Amino acid sequence: MTTPTESLSDQPDAPDTKSGGISRRGLLGLAGAGIAGLGVGIAGDRTVAALAASGTGAVSTSYPFFGEHQSGIVTPAQDRLHFAAFDMSGSATRDDLIELLKDWTVAAAAMTAGKDIGDFGAVSGPYDAPPEDTGEALGLPASGLTITFGFGPTLFQTTEGADRFGLAARRPAELVNLPHFPGDRLNPATSDGDLCIQACADDPQVAVHAIRNLSRIAFGRASLRWSQLGFGRTSSTSTSQTTPRNLFGFKDGTANIKAEEPTAVNDQVWVQSGDGAGWLAGGSYLVARRIRMGIEPWDRTILSEQEAVIGRNKGEGAPLSGGTEFTEPDFALSGRENIPLIAENAHVRLAHPTQNAGIRMLRRGYNFVDGNDELGRLNAGLFFISFQRSPHQFTEVQLNLARHDALNEYITHVGSALFAVPPGATRGSYVGATLFA
Ligand SMILES: C=CC1=C(C)c2cc3[nH]c(cc4nc(cc5[nH]c(cc1n2)c(C)c5CCC(=O)O)C(CCC(=O)O)=C4C)c(C)c3C=C
Ligand SMILES: [Fe+2]
């Protein structure tokens, strides 16, 4: 942590620090009253307050931060998202970048375990210093929080002859901005970035707390370029999850890659050691697309047309060629007058692996509604996120969709970004360490 712990540690007996009605002595008192045996009671452990608040003793899901792969990819998609892209400051050095990644690692490991950040957390520090943790997650459990870090193409750039962070030679050949697709209306202010953080949780406050505190830690070294809140997942990444619905009212995520398909995950999601950049093995590529959805025109569209556009029925999500939700679509099946039951320009036909040389991707997107525009239309859509072994997988499918998809009448891509997601951090090391080895 960048927090000057030395100056904090010499004040352990600061007065009973009151903040938001919770006192430091009160928290420690709780630990002493029967739950100290669980190993809680250390400053910053929110579980203390959560257990006391719920009165149930229930501990919510938490995913380990350290491991072979970063969490937040094949872990079951949570309900809420706060996604943020950052730019490194003009004066930041390679050492600053490494220090930042180390600090982010420590904080992310704490928060995903349901703890506040720093040695003293939100309310146990000295009265005469800003708290290390901002505090809005006090009393909330880990809530399935995952924090996933990525590196954008510009991090590897050479500007005016200078190799910004000495990384130019380490850039994977495929880590370049996505091409312009037909129909794109991208806003540069909500596109790209040197670094990204995807925070997903089952409680929106926990996801927002994570991004807020990581941004705060970055102060002076990196700053927020853009960020996106998402409510309501639009995919399942495990067979144990039910398929959610997007804002057009259709089940979304039915044919997604699921964690229970290890061969597909290996072949289509994780970068392999022979793929090019060795440091990225065990990682992935993250594509983010902010897609505005025309809610009002869609809501004036008749049901049969809505179903024809997607290629599945709206109730169950079954393919229009028949069967139930998980029946494979039969694109060869025709109905009256030899018209294909799933139209040539239906979204699921054009996105299906059989139409794209076997390509699949792991989708992990979220619905968003950011108020309304000046014409009184909902500023709403899908914050599309996909993870793939190569950006080429997204590009191929998106090219097919951008050219022919019936859905294009109702959607516009307004933001875009690509990031290389390094493998998981080993305990004692930091996220992205392989890039600097
Ligand atoms: C380039 C990738 C994709 C973009 C962009 C995209 C946007 C998008 N999708 C929907 C709604 C649905 N998509 C569905 C399936 C589906 N979509 C993609 C890819 C992109 N979608 C794929 C690879 C698939 C799976 C195809 C298959 O193998 O059958 C579905 C059907 C249910 C499902 O399988 O998930 C819906 C519904 C919207 C609304 C949208 C942009 C706003
Ligand atoms: Fe789709």
TrEMBL record:
User: How the cofactor binds, per note?
Assistant: Binds 1 heme b (iron(II)-protoporphyrin IX) group non-covalently per subunit.
Question: What Pfam families does this protein's entry cite?
Answer: Dyp_perox_C (PF20628), Dyp_perox_N (PF04261)
Q: Which GO terms describe its biological process?
A: iron import into cell
Family recorded in the similarity comment: Belongs to the DyP-type peroxidase family.
- The yes or no answer to whether the keyword Protein transport is present is no
- Domain named Dyp-type peroxidase N-terminal: residues: 70-231
User: What EC number(s) does its UniProt record assign?
Assistant: 1.11.1.-
Coarse class of the primary localization is other
- Keyword list, A-Z: Heme, Iron, Lyase, Metal-binding, Oxidoreductase, Peroxidase, Signal
Which cofactor is essential here?
heme b
Provide the Gene Ontology terms for cellular component: cell envelope; cytosol
Q: Where in the cell is it found?
A: Cell envelope
Which residue stretches belong to region Disordered? 1-22
- What's this protein's name? Deferrochelatase
> What's the catalysed reaction?
heme b + 2 H(+) = protoporphyrin IX + Fe(2+)
Q: Which SUPFAM superfamilies match?
A: Dimeric alpha+beta barrel
Q: Dyp-type peroxidase C-terminal domain spans which residues?
A: 243-425
Q: Briefly state the protein's biological role.
A: Involved in the recovery of exogenous heme iron. Extracts iron from heme while preserving the protoporphyrin ring intact.
Coiled coil spans: none
Supply the InterPro entries for this chain: Dimeric_a/b-barrel, Dyp_perox_C, Dyp_perox_N, Dyp_peroxidase, EfeB/EfeN, TAT_signal
Instruction: Show the GO MF annotations.
Output: ferrochelatase activity; heme binding; metal ion binding; peroxidase activity
Q: Where is the composition biased (Polar residues)?
A: 1-10
